Amino acid sequence: MSRFADHRSALRQPPIEYRPELRWWLAEGHHTDQTLRSEIETAHRFGFGGMEFLAMDEEMIDHGRYGWGAEEWVHDSAIVVEETTARGMSVSFTSGTNWSNANLPTIDPDHPSAAQELDVVTIDVRRGAPAAGALPRIDLDANRGDSLLPGHRVAPKTQRLEAVVAAVLTGDGVIDSSSVLDLSERVDGESLDWEPADDRDWRIFVFWAHGTGQTAAPSATVNYTVNYLERAGVDAVIDYWSEVVLTAELREQIARNPRAQMYMDSLELTIWGAGGMFWGQSIRDEFRRRRGYDIVPWLPFLIREIRMMAAATTYHYDAESAQQPEVEKVRHDYAQTLTDLYIENMLEPFAAFLHENGITLRAEISYGLPFELTRPGPAVDGIETESLEFGSQIDAYRLLAGPAHLFGKQYSSETGATTRNHMLDHRFFDQIIRTQLAAGVTRTVLHGWASTVGAEGATQWPGHEGMWPMFSERFDTRQPASEFYPLWNDAIGRYQYLLRQGRPRIDVGILRTDHFVDNLSGLVFVEGDGTRVPDEVAYGRWWMRNRENHWWQDLGMQDAGWSYEFFDASLLLHDDVSFGEGVVQPDGPGYQALIVYQEALDPDAAALLLDRARAGLRVLIVNGARELKLLLTGDYTTHERAASRTPGRDGRDAELAATLTALRALPSVREIDDPAQTIQALRDLGVIGRAEFTAENRAVLTYLREDGDLLHLFAYHFLYETGAETTVEVALPAGAVHRIDANTGEALPHQGTRQAGDRTIVTITLAPGESALFTLDRGSAGQDSVPARATTVADIAEWGIAVESWDAGEDITIVEDRGLGYVTREVKPTTAVTRIESAATALRPWKDLPDIGPEVSGVGEYRAVFTVDAADAADGRLLLDLGSTSGGLGSVRINDGAARGFDTSHPVVDITSDVRPGTNEVVVRVASSLNNRLRARGYYEQIADVALQFSGRAGTHETIVRDYGLLGPVTVKRMR
């Protein structure tokens, strides 16, 4: 049994493995040893727990000398591993240069290990106008546009004839599927003589396989993307890492680091040709073996166009309406086969190799390619999501929470990437982290970190960009807020520490299959009329914060305080998934019920549901549910009748129908025709939320962990832009409740509990954007208490105000000579800090203070005194309420006490231990972003707006002068 006292030490000082980590964009291998060591020491001093490092293209340098794979890159990699390991930090490699995919310098486009595609060229024929002679080949040198990814296309030299198929066109892009003929056997060499026997319009599809030619930069030579579907692809990666990367010295360092990892990002592989299909030598045979029929006659229906990610797939040919359901089954079978091969030929062997070398595998599984989103979960050690592509949406993070929780995987996120570089207040990023915590993401990898030091001629203040100036944010020394990162990391570390203890407890599992998940949904910032909506507006006011969840759109369970998440039904068949005590995976999430809502359901999973339902599993069948398909185009899918067909062309629809008939007849099963009836139907089945609200609340999300006798509860008011203060009552098992101050680690009995039979009702009041952390101890008796009431004991209106203004300083040159016959020169832009004393004493935004103005960014310092009489100092707890810090990170110091951090949405600090009767001095320091200074310097005028690019438009970044500083009103309150 766990006791709360066991956690107090870690809450005071969170261990390093629970602290946020960093994605570090290196300027290839160009950083000097001095720079590398300094950056890691600084990140460690700031309180970060690890570094995930990767090479990014740096201008003005010799890529052959410094690119990925060069001696300088190998040397720098060894230093990164050595320095992080020495400090107890985690270290993560990537599976090639940059982030986008596994790539190697040892292959070329025609290599068996290289990524392949199935391309197509067509011939239109009629009776009297036959096909005769040589089949048309692919023009491998044709220019079909550039990729948005770092790298270029190198044309392959060879192509392989895969199949020739003829079909009748009955309309524009419409094929009569019953007319399809496989003409491959009639081909002589590469020639075909064939004439239709009727007068219909026939089209011959000639399919050629060839390498995609996708490269990845930067590289000392040229890195090519490997094939994720053929075993040859991962074998080439394993060989390269075994023979080149993992030197004896590096293996020794890895052996000393228990948190060495390989990280695989979202799958950003591109296809060049007109066919749009990923391919390989064995695909046709594997498809036949797994699906039981030949894919060739169906290839015309798989021809597609992909706009960057698989979510934006458009098929070029459909069947006639009566035939289309069968085509959809074939398309599913193709994607299912690709998913199988991705798991078996990439993830599983790669993970096994890594484990042999003391490295674990963390991956953003599936999304980006047409792979089922959740099925690969068991094959990796850690499952990762991200904020850039999923836009701080709770439903998006629920997508991968299912496999993470079902199989006990660490759930993490690349967090902080936006299209608004240096613009946004710190509160924006805190809200993303809190949204993710509410879904069970308990490992934050900030996106990202870059040294300010870079190449001569390519580096200007505020510093080397790393991930390009049009993308992401930098949580490094260039930020005025970096002064407060140690306090911030302590706070996040406390959340992540407590929310990794024990096991997750999730009320409901929702069965959901998706091979084309919309991972572009977090990047849709352009309205139909072309208006660019700022990221911060969409995040704070749209989608989930406008009661529009993308996938499970009925909000009844969420409003009731119930937790739920998604996973593919076939995962229930996994040997590691059990049923007992009336729940799925009793030692894990413990789903009390499963929801079936999509039209297609795997027949083997359906049979298992029937078996489990006979043993008491509660199942709810929901008809008429609507879910997002692609936000960019406003496409949604409505599932009129759940489980009405199998997903694939397996001939088992009648079997599924019989299974569902038997399932519906069981007392533990309900069926509804309106998703709005979900919560009541589940209650009728006896489901009770483990942390349910006593009354509906539309502003609060929770996440629950069970840790022996302890329950750890995270609560979050997610309407940070549009909401008002809210009070919610949460019903938990009986026990004593403590509230943990995330900024100090102090845990005090929570005021606002009452016992109601075998439950404890916890009253929680939250400001918009505020989050709170509680622990309930079932081993201790709970005591009734009323919520604490606040009384103002001091208003602080007069302040001494100064701003430390940040601007460009002098450049410093760093020179390194490693005795290799050349020297490396770096430029380190410095920041000039000018202290401006303001004559003002009233709190206003910096832009409105005449002696500060709209061009200043930096850190504000505010000094004041307040008086507390002896009675107030001795009775209850004293809180300093800062009102507003404009979303800025900062600290509070009272008298000679320690600096304390605060919540950027609800900046209230417990100052009880530092206050003395009589006069007290308070110092508040608040950081800004760099937006106002960079705007004044013209920084944004030449930076392309990537959100416009995604929508097919062009333009540069636009930003406004932003409010900075302490705004108040500031009061001292007594709570009792």
TrEMBL record:
Which InterPro entries does the UniProt record give? Answer: Galactose-bd-like_sf, Ulvan_degrading_GH
Alphabetic keyword roster: Hydrolase
State the Gene Ontology terms under molecular function: hydrolase activity
Answer whether the UniProt record assigns the keyword Iron to this protein.
no
Name assigned to this protein: Glycosyl hydrolase
The organism named in the record is Microbacterium sp. A8/3-1
